[in-house]
Amino acid sequence: MSFFVIIILIANVYVSRKGFREISFFQKYVLKIEAIQQGEYYRLISSSFLHVDTNHLLFNMLTLFFFGDYVVSYFGGLLFWFIYLASVLSGSLYGVYYNRDKSHYTAAGASGGVVGVLFSALLAFPEMKLGFLFFPIPIPGYLFVILYLAYTVYGMKSQRDQIGHSAHLGGAIGGVLTSLIISPGLLSQWFGQVPI
């Protein structure tokens, strides 16, 4: 595994564990609409290193573990960090915008950055197939993109769970746009290999 991925994993585990133990630390760095409106913009990034529980942390870090090296191998380590942090920021910003009328809205987790890295990897490697524990038959990456986006939009509209779907969508958009800014040829490459 790449050093650049390991650094992000360690940072998430360290900060999240501190947040598990110290509620005041968690409250100081978690994303809160009211705090953002009062100028505490650091929360747009700091909240991504906090998680609500061990399962939340584990799921995000496993996803980053599986897909981070694809992005590092294609773009390089420093650009991987750039894509990750740009996705974190776009996920947080879109989450804040989408929930701007909910003063009680709070969010934590690396999901925006993780989804951005996942979508960047799928863009760079359009032939990639994904398998899941609950669905062992691998599915093409482009089909996963369609299904994931549909599920995310549904989750945003229904608001039946505590998942930050808007941050996921913002992170996906950030990951794709940042990847295309770095390597504009990716889009034609992706459409050239995806059956339409």
Strand order of the biggest β-sheet: 1-2
How many distinct helices?
10
Rg from alpha-carbon coordinates: 16 Å
Oligomerization status of the protein chains: single chain
The percent range for helix content is: 55-70%
Shape summary: globular
CATH topology: Rhomboid-like fold
Structural class assignment: mainly alpha
Q: For the record, what CATH class applies?
A: Mainly Alpha
Q: What keyword list fits this structure?
A:
single chain, 196 residues, mainly alpha, Rhomboid-like fold, two-stranded antiparallel sheet, two-stranded antiparallel ribbon, 70% helix
Question: What secondary-structure arrangement, pairings included, does this model have?
Answer:
Elements (H helix, E strand, L loop, with lengths): L2 H19 L1 H7 L1 E2 H5 L5 H4 L7 H22 L1 H22 L7 E2 L3 H14 L4 E4 L2 E6 H18 L6 H18 L3 H8 L3
Antiparallel strand pairs: 1-2, 3-4
Helix pairs in contact: 1-2, 1-5, 1-6, 5-6, 5-7, 6-7, 6-9, 7-9, 8-9
